[in-house]
């Protein structure tokens, strides 16, 4: 074989190798950077929502009858557009208020705000370390110190460890007092609900690393536990209470000495604790689950406590019973709601904005996303 022929064959081999390598790199980029479960639609829906958020002032909106409860402008300037106010709230640790306003502004579908490519609610999600983190209401509820009074509670949690108390029941402000029981608890991955002295009932297995919702509904003569919108179990009987004039407290993340098998502090994220002065029915438990971890209460008439725990521990029920946090950190990096990461259609549009964060004006890209 001539030298020229050999050179030609070598060149052909090199070209083929380059083509194969190029295809491999292209495939790698596609796998890493192409969403697997949805396609990017036109920006029409997001553009329409963005336009509406720009055209309405937060002062005018919150003064109307649109809000689930009246909280003014949640620290934003009344003259700001709603989108500017939402960005301001998310960046200044008032994400709970922003979630509530966006839910009421666009109740017909899934929507969210992105700031510099971060899903905004993730900036304020409450994290618990499993060692000494918890949040407890500043005042107790005297109406719950009544054994036959119906009530319900709902809570969202994303566990990083398979055991821990999500919600406790205290008969006094001190977490180490004698009335100290777990009400919603994980033990080896199983989720239990309990009202003392009734039995701990198994309502199903939590999904580790994902958001789970528990609704506990007490009628005065028994209670039911729902996990992710599905009835898990029920128990007949009347709960006990400490009696007297004191109130009952329902801290989240707190370890308890009287428990359903674990009793340890919770490790992971907790969101959207709601307490109602009525017994919720199965359709309402389903509705809470469908609204997601940043959803609003299903009925404003009977909500007595609402702590979204997004950037702060304020009570958004209108009753002003905030909570005090202990060793709780806010923020969950790289978080996306599962309904968005698994969506089949996503519409998104962004605009530049200057936002005052802790006294300093900074430049941000603020986006609106709508998905199905």
Verbal overview:
The chain is of the alpha+beta class. It has two domains: 39-121 and 334-371, no CATH class; 126-330, Sandwich (Jelly Rolls), CATH 2.60.120. Helix content is 22%, strand content 31%. It contains seven helices and 19 strands. Strands 4, 6, 11, 12, 13, 14, 15 and 17 form an eight-stranded antiparallel sheet that branches. The protein has a five-stranded mixed sheet with strand order 1-18-19-2-3. It has a four-stranded antiparallel sheet with strand order 7-8-9-10, with no helix packed on it. A hairpin with a 3-residue loop joins strand 11 (212-218) and strand 12. Helix 4 runs antiparallel to helix 5. It starts with a helix and ends with a strand. The relative contact order is 0.19.
**Count the strands?**
19
Mean pLDDT: 84
Which segments are poorly predicted (pLDDT under 50) over 5 or more consecutive residues?
Answer: 3-12, 14-41, 65-71
Give the domain tally: 2
Distance between the termini: 64 Å
